[in-house]
Amino acid sequence: MMNLRYRILQSRWPDGGEWQDWGFFYESDESNRGEALVLFHHNMDELHWIVHHVNHRIRSRRLPLERVEDAVAKYSDRLRVLRDIHIYKGDDEPLSTALNAIEAHVLGLDHIAPHDASEETMRVFAGRANRPLAQAIAHRLGFPLSAVSITPLPDSEVHVQIDEVVRQKDVFVVQPCSAPVNDHLLELLLLVDAFRRASAHSITAVIPYFPYSRQERMARGREAISARVVASMLETVGADRIIYVDIHTEAIQGFFTVPVDQLPAYPILADYFRGKSFLEEAVVVAPDVGRARLAGKYAQALGLPLVVMQKRRDGFRRVRTTHVVGDVRGKVPILIDDIVASGSVLGQIPTLLEHGARPEVHLAITHPVLLPSALERLDEDWVAELVVTDTILLPPVKRHPKLKIVSVAPMLAYAIRGIYHGESISPLWDFHAPPARG
Questions:
Q1: Tens digit of pLDDT for each residue in 316-335?
Q2: Which of the following is catalytic: 169, 311, 398, 404?
Q3: Where does residue 360 rank: exposed (0-12), middle (13-18), buried (19+ CB within 10 A)?
């Protein structure tokens, strides 16, 4: 029986140029015979290549654009098996052997990295908080999201049911706990409970944006340590492992007794700035001493000086900058943080300008909570751009023109596969960009 598979690789022409994504929809059977439909894009709107492989030998031919539609139609019934999978724009993991578009006819199917039969017990599910991110992760792993029904009830409760067998399966459930935080958190808890009651072999909660991470201690008397409560609830319902990205306070890892993997976004965000024309005149700026370590990783990755600001927070909303340690005169600041919510970090920019920084401030911040006050501050002329990740799904009203989004899906897919196979995921902490662009 033929099995439909999907993979994404990167390639470029031998004479250089931009790296392109190749989306492979291919079939294989026990004799390794079959056909592969390869969609090669220049601008995400045009499909240019159809490739067939027989006995591990790939043959390629260029099709007139008017014939591409017919060729895709031939595969439409099979592609529907993969639901809404299309070419996914963005960098994938670097390949040990790059697929060269010119040499495609002599490369074997091994270079396509077909679905590993040893991953048959892996299942990826998603809550409602950020389904596009979960879909992108599943696409990179080579299969669609598994099915789950999450139904709001008239009394504002929610009903969760797993729609496929997960007995003795290794489940990864993707659910960032962004706004509405409590709804998404409870939904995650119910999902984990359902997987446990359905006899899943293991349950990993993939929480790209971890809730209550700024409430990890008692700043004043008679306060709850909310992050500790969240950790306890996740363990109580049955989570075997936790994955999150750039948590606000690393000490939260100590609230868990199960394994925790904190994944870094700085290699992805730092790579965005590589090759920018202003980089030779830039400095990396930490908004406070607490973020100096994170900003130092950006500075090391980009080979830039580090500047640290000192601030004092008066209550939950008021932030006052007291000192700037380092030289920003005539420099382009790249301001680093892990969360942008009310936009207090944007409110620190005038202090940089007072110290002589150029009115062209770039920001690299992992989690875009983006309350209305932050969106208003993005309108200031001195804000050049805000680069964030897709850990939080942004509604159209928050898609500011100065906002740039890079995806953590390849990183999370890499981590999930490594954890599933019991392999090290430490390469994620090494700054390495995708293959150098022409």
A1: 556 667 689 999 999 999 99
A2: 311
A3: middle
